[in-house]
Specification:
This protein has no helices and 16 strands. It is mainly β. Strands 1, 2, 3, 6, 10, 11 and 13 form a seven-stranded antiparallel β-sheet that branches.
């Protein structure tokens, strides 16, 4: 995937788009169906995998990968993420299958109000380097409909922009190679500094 820097954002905030001419660089959202020709079929019946590779550059480590997927109908994708290799059903670092099956037990994985028609989660404090996301498409033998699934992949410093609780700030360490985020909440005449609020 190619990196597109966000306008008027903090350092290293960006979104990612497939290297295909089938998507517009003007939006962080892209449809999945036109990319299905790049799928590989597994040994499982009625399933296929589509892989996206993205690079977290040096200095962006400690940011958060934000994955969103929306559709007008029930989403028939499972998402598996792995650092440094291709994910599979047997080998992954984080995954989201549905509201009851995901990596929610991990302190580095947070999902937000996901439904059958919407997937929304963060992988927190990611390492720099190559991450691969495998989308496992279910029921591939069903005749395709006109419904469209839209996905976005981005790197953000503060999940949910600190949920509008204060101002999200970023500071570089002494080497200038790593950044840290925090939010400042103002109370009348005093200022309180806290870690990000992920709720």
């Amino acid at each position: 995937m190619q990196t597109v820097l966000r306008r008027d954002s903090t350092p290293f905030e960006s979104y990612y788009l497939p290297l295909s001419g089938k998507v517009s660089p003007d939006s962080a959202d892209f449809p999945l169906e036109p990319l299905s020709s790049n799928s590989s079929y597994s040994n499982e019946t009625d399933t296929s995998w589509t892989y996206f590779l993205l690079n977290i550059p040096r200095g962006a480590a400690g940011g958060n990968i934000h994955i969103r997927m929306t559709s007008d109908v029930k989403i028939n994708y499972e998402i598996y993420a792995r650092y440094g290799g291709l994910p599979s059903l047997d080998s992954w670092d984080y995954y989201y299958a549905n509201r009851t099956r995901s990596s929610d037990g991990s302190m580095f994985f947070t999902s937000y109000n996901s439904t059958e028609e919407k997937i929304d989660f963060y992988i927190l404090y990611v390492k720099e380097g190559t991450w691969t996301f495998g989308l496992r498409s279910l029921n591939t033998t069903i005749i395709p409909s006109n419904d469209q699934t839209v996905m976005s992949v981005s790197v953000e410093r503060c999940p949910k922009r600190c949920s509008s609780h204060g101002a999200c700030k970023v500071a570089l360490d002494a080497s200038g190679l790593a950044s840290y985020r925090f939010y400042i909440q103002h109370f009348q005449s005093m200022t309180l500094i806290r870690p990000p609020n992920f709720s």
